[in-house]
Amino acid sequence: MAEYVGIDLGTTLSGLAYLKPDGNPEIVPNADGERLTPSVVFFDAHEDVKLVGSAARDGGEPDRTIFQIKRHMDDPEHLVEIDGKKWTPAEISALILSKLKRDCSKICGDITDVVITVPANFNELARKSTIAAAEMAGMKVRRLVNEPTAAAVYYAHSQGVKGRILVYDLGGGTLDTTILDVEGDNIKILTSEGARHLGGSNFDDILLDAYAEQYKKQTGADLFSDERHRRRVLQATEDAKKMLSKLQRVNDTVANDQNSGIARIDLSREHFEKLIRNMLTRTVLLVEQALDSAKLKPSDIDHVVLVGGSTRIPKVKTILEKMFGKVPKSCGNVDECVALGAALFAKKSAKIQEVCNASYGTVAMVYNAKTKEEKLMNSVVIPKNSPIPCSRTQVYQTSEDNERIIEVDITQGEDEDAKYVDVIGRITLDVPAGRAKGCEIAVTFSYDENQRVRALIVDKQSGRSKEVAVSYKGAGVLSEEELKRRSAHLRTMRIE
Length: 496
What we know:
single chain; alpha+beta; Substrate Binding Domain Of DNAk, Chain A, domain 1; 6-stranded mixed beta sheet; 11 helices; 33% strand
């Protein structure tokens, strides 16, 4: 049985790696001999089988095929309905993880404890859903690790480098950029920034629009009329994107399913780069934000490391080279390095200092001495990029006489305006009657190694207190009892 196992549960591709006895990580192929498994699930209507991977991707029934479920891991209301049964994003992800576990157990033996990677910008619900998915697949999550951190661990290990590393991770669905200090086995995360819904699939959609526009001009008809044909054309645009990373120009022949004619699509790399210019500019702004957060200049970075399939786009390397004055380096196979790093992380985690990926606080009435006005604001208790695990305390005062109930909202976000942060939990505490305003309430937030938040409030006058873990409500959030029930059911399913 492999002791150290890492899993990259990706938006478009997923992989599993284990640490060999010689201390080097190795990707474990799936049952089809593929080193990576497409993160796609198909629900067969006739044989009660759930196909995962390439077979699912090529199934041809879009209403029974689930793509990119990772993009919905933070949505408690997102449910996928197939044959009258509703599936949560965690359950769909559990099917993918079950496929990896079952296939790879033939080489690694039974897999129980794992490290799973997540985007640095994943919120608390998305992280909780990832852990739930692993549990349903029969695995215990030893640790969640941010994807760029895992990639940096692998890069430092494989290249034997040290110094300050900036990881630029542009995958199928997300962008993460992380800055780390590396000294041997000791790794310290300085800062992480990221964006959801910014990755290769967005570039594919842009190319799809370009295809549809050219087809319309040449034939006067729409290129696709339903989701099934859209998927087929989308595959063609993805292939064109990959070819434009090697060639200056591609030509493609496409037709719709209404026999409206054939169009010859001509696309240059230069035109493609113009189409995605704004999105690439967003990635640069996030890199600059990471540098500012760490109080660093581009010249302070020793190594720029590329991770994720979308970094194969030549323009990505060009803009980063111009920004840093050095050629970015690919982290081996850019699609595999996260899983490989996760396996290494499983053994080296004690030597890696991570940071909090968002700010956590509460909504409080704050007095402005200049305007002499009180305003409801987001008061940060744990700032973003604080080393973890950590615990911080802020003291607040009650604002009204005779308050009997103290309510403390747990917020996620950096903005001072309470309208622009997410309320991810709430604590309610009963206090004695007859109190004047101005009673002190101590609020303590803690953030653990798996990026989960707990909150404690203490009424300093009465000594009463209450502690809670962040909890979510929504159709897609499973109770512990329901999680166990669905885990048992999932293990009886036929997954191929």
